[in-house]
Amino acid sequence: ERRIQRLLVLMQFTFPGAPMIYYGDETGMWGANDPCCRKPMIWPDIEHEDEAILPDGTPRKRLDSVAFDADFHHFYRSLIHLRNKRPALRYGDFSMLYANDREGVVVFRRSIKEKENAFVDDEILVVINNGSADADVQVQPLSRKKFNDLITPVGATPENVENAVNLSSDENKNALPDSAADAILSVSMKPFSARIIG
After folding, report:
1. With contact defined as beta carbons under 8 Å apart, do 54 and 60 qualify?
2. Residue 192 region, left (φ>0) first, then alpha (ψ -120 to 50), else beta?
3. How far is 36 from 2, CA to CA, in rounded Å?
């Protein structure tokens, strides 16, 4: 469930428009219809009792722990920092590069060249696999020669982080060869994972 939440948050922070955070989302709080939509905020320095009742008032089959999710909070902070740092995410054009409903894969580009008569050159590629199977996606790479993962890939495990982005035309996975203007970027994605490349 948290993997899917991370994908939703990542899409919200990389898609056009201003992201909206309802209080507590960033700490891993959950809610439901009234009155569960108005729970007290979860703070890292306060211990909370486990929830024993469902939103409709019936007893839970098992207790649901209530605690501040530091990893999820850090994930939100990383996306906020990235969005504030990269103009393409705040003001850039949006281009859908690939979408496959059956596989649950979407790839889009955010880019900006000029903002209010000032030269700005920023480009970001977002790859999301919301499917339950591995996916290999080939797309046109960024226009610049070098690129990196801008955050730790969502759904990454130590064994798949390093080999998840590869260029079909070059052994150096983070640089395009000077002679390969038509190089294709091959991105291998685990289920319920995402990458922000820039």
Report:
1. yes
2. left
3. 19
The dihedrals phi and psi of 146, each to the nearest 5 degrees, come to: -120, 145
Residue type, 144: R
**Residue pointed to by tokens 């390093």:** 162
> CB–CB of 150/88 below 8 Å?
no
Q: Report the alpha-carbon distance of residue 195 to residue 129 in Å, rounded.
A: 9
Instruction: Dump pLDDT digits (tens) for 95-149.
Output: 999 999 999 999 999 999 876 767 688 999 999 999 999 999 888 777 766 778 8
List the structure tokens of 14. 């990389």
Degrees to nearest 5, angle at CA 97 with 130 and 83: 70
Whether 7 contacts 195, CB under 8 Å: no
C-alpha of 174 from chain center? 20
Per-residue model confidence as pLDDT tens digits over 162-179: 333 333 333 334 443 443
Strands 185-189 and 165-167: antiparallel
Q: Which alpha helices (H) appear in the chain, and where do they start and end?
A: 2-14, 70-85, 87-91, 158-161
CA–CA gap between residue 14 and residue 140 (Å, rounded): 19
Q: ∠126-132-135 over CA atoms, to 5°?
A: 50
